[in-house]
């Protein structure tokens, strides 16, 4: 028959049009891919660009094909289906607001077995955060915890940072001031994926924590303030951090979309953002939109509020979930958090492996 494309007539792929070269580079078996690492043993760019399909059959869960270059092989129908429909084992994100149950996990159980670890990581990817209780209220515990999940991202501050009220701080986090809902380190390249904040002491009056689902806010804007949503998804903003030995800068949109128009990243930090000098019409609407986003991110409708007490860790997706704290009075007691960052690679990759 010799076809460039075939249309599958039965099974889960019924009605799907498949292209010859696309299929040829997905053949399975030791002849084509290394069984140890599943990487291709040949250069797909060197395949015949005029390749045709001479024959094919769907049988026993496999699509078996003969190609015009003389190669015969098969592909799992289920794997094709998953790839075509972008089906990932990492669960879909669940949009939440203040009415949703807080996701709390017990440190003594998370690492007891893979089932518990899987549950925690699934919740983390669904909700964009997990609160962990019962860790040791000791220095460096945040690193010990984080390293069970993945390598810690060392920055110019080292492996961890101490959140403590101190004189002449290089960041407002190290004061007793209120911190409105924000993303951390939007000026880094890349922005840290996951943040962990561990509480060693929280004996001051005030200093309560909050989290907000940035995707929930973005969705609200999309359906209720379309013009604001559009400007926020289109305007690149510069984020800047100035210290004695570095000036860090990175640009992003406050609502970043992927190529399919899905939410990819929320970046919000009123302490650090610099919108470019655009024309007055653009800036007029941008400032209205940012104000609206700020109000939503700090409104009771979207915030979950809790108190990080001794031994608790708040672990959150810094590309989605915003965090904040109320002001505290350092004269009423000692407050000390330690924080660090890890990458999504490690946790997402671990979860995918656990769910395989
Ligand atoms: C931070 C921060 C929150 C807190 O250090 O980035 O947001 O509760 N801290 O102190
Ligand atoms: Zn922060």
State the fourth-level CATH superfamily of the largest domain: Clavaminate synthase-like
> Based on helices, strands and strand pairing, what is the structural class?
alpha+beta
In the CATH scheme, the class of the largest domain would be Alpha Beta
Per the CATH scheme, the topology name of the largest domain is: Double-stranded beta-helix
Number of strands: 22
How many domains? The number is 2
Determine the strand fraction and express it as a percent band: 25-35%
Give me the side-by-side strand order of the main sheet: 6-7-19-10-22-8
Main sheet attributes: strand count, strand direction, barrel closure: 6 strands, mixed
Q: End-to-end distance, in Å?
A: 38 Å
Q: Which overall shape is indicated by the principal axes computed on the Cα atoms?
A: globular
**Second rung of CATH, namely the architecture of the largest domain:** 4-Layer Sandwich
Estimate the mean pLDDT confidence: 97
| Count of DSSP-assigned helices | 9
- Bound small-molecule species: N-oxalylglycine, zinc ion
> If you compute it from the alpha carbons, what radius of gyration comes out, rounded to the nearest whole angstrom?
25 Å
Task: Name the poorly predicted regions.
Answer: none
In helices, the fraction of residues equals 25-40%
